[in-house]
Amino acid sequence: MGRGEGSLKADDIDQLEEATAAVQAWKYALRFTEMAALKCVIELGVADEIESQGGAATLSHLSTALSCSLPSLHRIMRFLVHHRVFKARRAATQEATTYLQTALSRRLLRGGEKSMAALILFEATPTMLAPWHGLSAQVLSKGTAPQPFEAAHGQDLWAYTAQNPEHSRLLDEAMACTARLTAAAIIGGCQDVFEGVRAVVDVGGGNGTFLGMVVKALPQIQGINFDLPHVLSSAPHWDGVEHVGGNMFESIPKADATFLMQVLHDWSDSECIHILKKCREAIAEDGNGGNDHGSDVKLKKSKKVVILEAVLDDDYNGERQFEEEEDSELQSWSGIRLSLDMVMMAHTNGGKERTRSEWAHLLAEAGFSSFSFKPTSVIPSVIEAFP
Ligand SMILES: C[S@@+](CC[C@H](N)C(=O)[O-])C[C@H]1O[C@@H](n2cnc3c(N)ncnc32)[C@H](O)[C@@H]1O
């Protein structure tokens, strides 16, 4: 059979795939350079210095202000301009090149509502990178070997942070990055979740950032930030929020609603069911899981467990078509949610991101009679579970 139009087309596609694969393979081999360069400019304070100059600064200004090597900084900035982290305005000399802040580089600022600096620094610590080397060993062991974090450090993340205050502080600050973004999204777009709620316990609330922002926006709410005692020992004060130390596997303070944000994804199914049952006990007025027939409907609606977690699509099988627009992937959370599932594999003992039906299974097993899912503008969905 001669070469028809169809087979020529197939050849073209093969060549395109080959060319793409050649570049992609290199990209994956060197992807760590992106994280390393971001870590470097956060540590140097480049975005902060550009911000202090009104959003634009020359290379010579930056190298003087940050006391660093001009040629080395130029190479780092050239790389990050290529990756569209900063913008550059070329000039007659290299020294006079002006770097401009972007929406992305503002997320590298050390403070502020949208800062992701602490999360990037935390994930880039040797402590959090070491477990990734043990992923294949864990997969090969079919569950018999310790999880990668424990294999690398001899104990799980929570025991490790209890013994290493500096790492514990980095973890709390990293979690506060996403807590700020999620709190803003919930306050801005899902405030109805607090309707009729007088008292909230944030279980595993870290340093209290989420509840602090919620209570500031809705001062009628009484907040209890519940976490391990060593976490609370360095937590800041938040008006209207009481820090209560304890262990969620044993007992959780009573309230109308318990919140669990990015906590259940750290644990196995059986541990999640245990935590959820403890949350049900905490919202029960008379110890019967909230089924108090005398209370009015509004009060009953405020008795709930609110889970803020990623929800993976049930029918998502990881396949991507080549024709898919890169831009839509750039703006979509679905790839990030799957990356977070990898993070849970490396850093927790049995934690995972879950699909909608996996969440439904856990909630039914924990004895909840009804639940609803509501997407947000950020990674987690709001899952409301009623006793
Ligand atoms: C992934 S962090 C989430 C923090 C916070 N909810 C957020 O999203 O920013 C998990 C939190 O669970 C807390 N935690 C772990 N084990 C706990 C336990 N047994 N009892 C209470 N809190 C616990 C950790 O200290 C940590 O603050």
Automatic annotation (TrEMBL):
Positions of the O-methyltransferase C-terminal domain: 132-369
Keywords recorded for this protein, A-Z: Methyltransferase, S-adenosyl-L-methionine, Transferase
Pfam family, one: Methyltransf_2
GO molecular function list: O-methyltransferase activity; protein dimerization activity
Residues the record marks as active site: 265
Biological process, per Gene Ontology: methylation
Keyword NAD set for record: no
O-methyltransferase dimerisation domain span: 26-110
The protein's name in its UniProt record: Acetylserotonin O-methyltransferase-like
Organism: Punica granatum (Pomegranate)
Taxonomy of the source species: Eukaryota, Viridiplantae, Streptophyta, Embryophyta, Tracheophyta
